[in-house]
Specification:
433 residues; alpha/beta; Carbamate kinase; VC0802-like; 8-stranded mixed beta sheet; 40% helix; binds aspartic acid; binds magnesium ion
Length: 433
């Protein structure tokens, strides 16, 4: 069971999530930091990095108050409360130790790791207070990334099983999401939102019956509820469909998180702490349903078109194009080609100038900023008739810059302008669902 930031966002929320854990029993629990904490720790790091010690100290003080208040509200047992306060003192005095010291990415990773350590510490003490048989495990002992920053799954499996075997017979095993060590033994993490990934990796490592991701929404919806009224949760998704949706915008799940679960064939359930009885969304190796499941949108996309007379009948042109993106570590999301050119999209403009400069040697380059990928996900095998027509027809009044279909059996992606996004999402919902 993994609980996200809002599910541990206050003393009351912690009590609620612990009740859910207690009802389940025999479970490995992964926690995020309290909501807002990772952002605060990053902002503190930024202030230290920018040599603004006063600013950093002020933020550290504010955060400390929040934790002391939470501990006071959560723990009525004085001995346990004192334990929590001592731990909070330790954490915040080590945080203050980073101010006025050389501060690099290594120190920043140590600083952001405190969020998950604090939340798991508080929750484990509360579990003890209400008499649950829970043990807190240090994720940095069994979560590790390799030189490429990818989880080292063999190591994780071996170490996790070893750690569990060293503490047999408990009802609840509690650990931190997100944090890990790297190959140099330093504290590191699985990137923002990485607690889902931890849960999926640990579910796979322990051959769990299922992986439950608890958030504050009742599963993945068939469209973005922030922009479209009347969306409904999708009860079942294939792993591939869920991965497309997570990648293309549905904020509820970390994009790569489902992969380990998929390989281990363990169902992932998205559940709502505010409405625990709701069925949520189950992601598994579902049979094809011959339906469209959901629509999502991904913002801040840049489209780049390279037009070249040399592409006609040429080989090696696309390789040269792709090599430039590879050189600048910039992943491509969408591609469309014609006989005279290729359009690609990226979601990171960090190296855009250099990329455009090098691409210009291959042909005429045009760039469109502020674009959005709208992604329609479902059973879209090419033998199924009519789905592409429905999607394109729904958007007949929206200018479409690119259309991509056939890359997988599970999606159609369309690139549109940012200002047309909400209209497009609404039109798709009206026409498809
Ligand atoms: N606390 C981390 C973050 O905010 C990891 C997570 O919540 O999944 O990104
Ligand atoms: Mg999250």
């Amino acid at each position: 069971m993994k609980f996200g930031g809002t599910s541990v966002g206050s003393a009351q929320r912690m009590k609620n999530m612990v009740a859910l854990v207690a009802a389940e029993g025999n479970v490995l629990v992964v926690l995020s930091a309290m909501s807002g904490t990772t952002n605060s720790l990053i902002s503190i790091s930024q202030s230290i990095h920018d040599a603004e010690p006063g600013n950093a100290r002020k933020q550290i003080d504010d955060l400390e108050i929040k934790y002391k208040d939470t501990a006071a509200e959560l723990l009525s047992d004085t001995e346990l409360r004192d334990k929590a306060l001592t731990y909070i003192d330790e954490v915040f005095s080590s945080l203050r130790g980073y101010v006025d010291r050389p501060f690099s990415i290594k120190e920043e990773k140590e600083v952001v790791a405190f969020g998950e350590k604090l939340s798991t510490n508080l929750v484990s003490l509360y579990m003890r207070q209400i008499g649950l048989d829970a043990i807190l495990l240090d994720a940095t002992e069994f979560m590790r990334i390799d030189r490429n920053g990818e989880p080292d799954q063999n190591f994780i499996k071996e170490k996790t099983m070893e750690t569990l075997a060293a503490h047999p017979g408990h009802q609840i095993y509690l650990t931190q999401g997100f944090i890990c060590r790297n190959m140099d033994g330093e504290i590191d993490n699985l990137q923002r939102g990485g607690s889902d990934y931890t849960a999926s990796l640990l579910g796979a490592a322990t051959d769990a019956e299922e992986i439950q991701i608890w958030t504050d929404i009742d599963g993945m919806h068939n469209n973005d509820p922030r922009f479209v009224e009347g969306t409904t949760p999708v009860s079942e998704l294939h792993f591939e469909e869920a991965a497309e949706l997570a990648y293309f915008g549905a904020k509820i799940l970390h994009p790569t998180c489902v992969l380990p679960a998929k390989h281990a064939n363990i169902p992932v359930r998205l559940l709502n702490t505010m409405e625990p009885e709701a069925p949520g969304t189950t992601i598994y190796n579902a049979e094809p349903t011959h339906t469209i499941k959901a629509v999502a949108a991904k913002d801040n996309i840049t489209a780049i078109k390279i037009k070249s007379s040399h592409m006609l009948l040429a080989y090696g042109f696309l390789r040269k194009v792709f090599e430039i993106f590879e050189k600048y570590h910039t992943p491509i999301d969408m591609i469309t080609t014609s006989e005279v050119g290729v359009s690609v999209t990226i979601d990171n403009e960090r190296c855009l100038d250099s990329i455009v400069r090098e691409l210009s040697e291959l042909g005429d380059v045009t760039v469109d900023h502020d674009m959005v990928i709208v992604c329609v996900v479902g059973d879209l095998q090419w033998e199924n008739k009519g789905f592409e027509a429905t999607v394109v027809n729904a958007l007949k009044d929206v200018p479409v810059r690119m259309i991509s279909y056939g890359g997988s059996n599970y999606n159609i992606s369309l690139l549109i302008r940012k200002e047309d996004k909400i209209k497009a999402l609404k039109l798709l919902s009206e026409n498809i669902f």
